[in-house]
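Predict the assembly for these two chains.
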Amino acid sequence: MSNWFSQNFPNVVYQGWSGDTGWLTAINQTLFMTFWSAIFGGLLGLIFGFGLVVTGPKGITPNRILFWIFDKIVSVFRAIPFIILLAFIAPVTKTLVGTQIGSTAALVPLSLGVFPFFARQVQVALSEVDSGIVEAAQAVGASFTEIVFGVYLREGRSELIRVSTVTLISLIGLTAMAGAIGAGGLGNMAIAYGYNRFANDTTLVATLLVLILVLVVQVVGDFLAKHYNHK
Amino acid sequence: MTNPIISLKNIDVTFTQKKRTIEAVKNVSIDVNRGDVFGIVGYSGAGKSTLVRAINLLQVPTAGQVVVNGETFFDGQSSKGVQIKPKDLRDRRRKIGMIFQHFNLLNERTVAENVAFALQHSPLSANEKKAKVSELLELVELSDRSEQFPSQLSGGQKQRVAIARALANDPEILISDEATSALDPKTTNQILALLKKLNAEFNLTILLITHEMEAVKEIANKVAVMQNGAVLEQGSTLDIFTKPQAPLTKEFIETATNQDKALAAISATDVVENLPAGQLFARLTYSGNSTNEPLITGLYQNFQVVASILYGNVEILQGTEVGSLLVVLSGTEAGLAAGLDSLTDQGVTVEILKGTKA
């Protein structure tokens, strides 16, 4: 088995396991980038998504100015192609993290790249919460925070999980692109050590690993979304 | 005369959309007394829902005055319309229960959690809240469903959960916004019976918004009829049913008592279609005392007027009988005239539907 593998996938073996250019390192870098940018971008996206819904024309505290601000920020950031955003905000990254390269530096563009996408998804998910339920909560004297957490978040939970899954998968795609600016990870492995060196076996294995990651996220996301749906 | 528990004065609600202004509610004044079941009837789009949302300021009016329990919530005359602090408003809203056409239960919470949601600000201890929830569920006969989710319930059961939630903070007022409109007739009657019971047992004041006059007929003691944002007429249910003024009110009542169908069928019969000269096709509406008088016999004995009854209907409204008859009257010219006068004297409303009175 291992003999067959090293014969057919020589470059994969050459990369090693835990070294600087090893597979474990690449997997860790991808997981690291996905996880932390999901946290930062996710929080930012949630805040903007909620902001858009509660200040929107049909929200619980309609506010044209705030809504306009949220809306424009999200639109502008969504309009910038990610690969350009990477380069464009490099100086910001440098001030924030101290470096422009590496997995940690990639968190800045990744978070900024994913949050507007997520914010729109959150906005759509929360808009599906029946306005009648919100009204019923207001009628029993629920406060702003109770409506945000007790109604929107709770009622929209299943839908939020579903859009988070979609976002997480697209984020994994972005981490591969971030590899292009030296962030490492499986994307970098597939391009720098696979494609650029004509090592098709490396590209193939890196792709398969990304595929598995996506699949796991999808399956877990679908399960949770279904579990929390009582509609 | 006691002070009304809800007093709406000259309420206007106007929505402005880009270039259009929609007057959803126009100069409506309504007083609801403690213990009333006040029906507000009208077709969809008449402004009923918008009007009642002005009571707990879910909809802030454009002008007018909202006074609930002696406290002014809104005064359009004042520079800042809303007279009550947000925190106090939330507190007052807990004393105004509300139920909806589509129930509006929290889908992701169990029946018990839905009721408990309304108790978040209650001064009760955790144990007392628990007891309160089971007491309420018992009241609406859903104790065995407390751990289920709304999606597992039927429409009638969902509405009963909504009623339990609306009653959680022992409100004095219950606003029912088309609460039976999505339910089948049998379930509708169960819900109406429950509302009636709540009104009788707890002296709960109920505002019943509906497009079904049947519901009003069942439980309301007062009624207002709305069209295009304005109240066409209002009064006691008995008065409205026996002496409706506006055409829309008549239409609603005819539908509610099935008279529209009877009238259509009877108008097409040979007797009415080819009504001989000198005969009258008329509707007699009477209530209360006149029900006990032998009307038809009296007509014949005193005026030699023969009345053949084509359709008859008796409703009991607020304990009073209300009857209506579709009859063909025949007799001498003088007899008919005198007979009709005597009916009117006895408090019977006479409407000539076909034929001419001499």
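Chain A has one domain: 21-227. Residues 21-227 of chain A form a domain with the MetI-like fold fold (CATH 1.10.3720.10).
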